[in-house]
Amino acid sequence: MSWPRLACCLLLIVPQLAAARYLQVLPPEAEVRRALQSSPQIAASRDQMNIAAARSRQLRAGSYEWTLGATGQRRTDPQGVPYNEQTYEISRGLRLWGKAPLDRALGNQTIAVGEYAFADNWHEAGRTLLSSWFEWLRARRTASVLQEQSELVRQQLGTIQSRVRAGDAPMLEEQLAQAELDRQSASVIAARQQEQEAALRLQRVFPDLILPESVTIDTPEVLPGPDEEWLGRILADNHELSLADGQREQASLIARRVGRDRFPDPTLGVRYSHNFDGNRRVVGLTVSVPLGGPARSAAYSAALAEAGVANQKAKDIRLKVETDARRATLAMRSTDLQWRQLQQVATRSRNTAEALSKGYSLGEFTITELLLGRRQALEAEMAAALAQLSALEAAARLQLDAHEIWVSPLD
Q: Is the pLDDT of residue 11 over 50?
């Protein structure tokens, strides 16, 4: 096998090997696509594509239409004899100076921009769904961790009550433990409320998305491939860039088309009249040409300026997309590292709390040390749980921006 053919095969194989798995923490892709299709944002984008198609047909047809005219009059000759006369005319403007091809090109570009806008809105809707989904998961996970810690405190309260009844601990320790349990219970109630509010916000935007009873939380992993490879994937097929470049080309075509309007189009017509009660018939051609004024030059100058604005906007968006892509790869790696560190802290804090609990039952530690250890374990467990979700969200966001998941129907 020759080297060029071998290189082509490698290019086809490597992307497949580097493709990351679909995270179980995410909703099934079929449900996501159904939820996106039915969302108001995507429905509006479909209407915008229909508008673009209609405007394309309008540009192809042009603004000139056939004009029919009729005139009736009564003539009286010097001898006082009256005659009826009628005149009929049909006319239409002509698109000259290469305006029709430009209109067709502008119509095609209008459709392309509409499709780019739909794909970009689909991607943005996917980002919104992803962010709202993890917002709900964080609220859900927060409530779950608080509930677990509340049960541990409840069990600890039983141990303290046994010591109080046995006379090994004062009543004050039971009161402190009960206050800690009440505080935890109140936190659980508040967390459940936040979970329900997050679910309502998610379903308000995506009413067809089903929220499951349980969600599998993956173990975060750094996605394979160097940062530059991910950057290349994101920039190679980016809807935001395509839309900006499409709008730039559209503005350039509009400027060229407005420039051609500096040369007025003629109106050509055919006139027929019969005079003196039809005794005389006249057939003629009519041509009229508007005299262009400073308004046409001003419109062209404005169109050129708008094309310049679109060009600068496209450059700005490219810088923004590159920055966002680098930030996404950085977030994927940093959140994974942060989660691993916090997971170790949570494990040590959990072991410390268990040791304090056993030591307290043997009278080796005070109630203050026990409750402080429980609070530190709760904080560490909460931080690790939320960091785990942040790492998974960062990985999913990178996959989404690289068009590995939730791809637009137009792609």
A: no
| Structural domain contains residue 229 | yes
What CATH number is given to the structural domain containing 103?
A: 1.20.1600.10
pLDDT digits (tens, 9 = 90+) for 292-317: 788 888 988 999 999 999 999 999 99
Question: Are 401 and 325 spatial neighbours (Cβ–Cβ below 8 Å)?
Answer: yes
Number of domains in the chain: 1
Q: Say how many C-beta atoms besides its own lie within 10 A of residue 212's C-beta.
A: 9
Query: What tokens were used for 70?
Result: 């009729």
Q: Report the phi/psi class of residue 291: left, alpha or beta, with left for phi > 0 and alpha for psi in -120 to 50.
A: beta
In the predicted structure, residue 224 carries a pLDDT above the cut 70: yes
Q: How many CA atoms lie within 13 A of 55 on its CB side?
A: 16
Question: Does residue 17 form part of some domain?
Answer: no
Domain that holds residue 232: 22-70+98-266+295-401
Chain position carrying tokens 């798995």: 21
Residue 205: inside a domain: yes
| pLDDT score recorded for residue 2 | 40
345, amino acid identity? V
Please give the C-alpha separations between residue 184 and each of 153, 157, 198, 355, 388, in angstroms, as whole numbers: 8, 12, 21, 21, 23
Report the pLDDT averaged over residues 395-408.
Answer: 93
Q: What is the pLDDT of residue 20?
A: 63
User: Each residue of 263-274: b (16+ CB within 10 Å) or e?
Assistant: ebbebebebebb
Q: Is residue 88 part of a domain?
A: no
CA gap 400, 234 in Å, rounded? 9
Q: Kindly report the CA angle at 86 between 81 and 87, in degrees rounded to 5?
A: 140
Q: What does the CA dihedral 397, 400, 402, 404 come to, rounded to 10 degrees? A: 130
**Interatomic CA distance for residues 222 and 232, integer angstroms:** 17
| pLDDT score of 8 more than 50 | no
> How far apart are alpha carbons 257 and 248 in whole angstroms?
14
Rounded to 5 degrees, φ, ψ at 88 are -125, 145
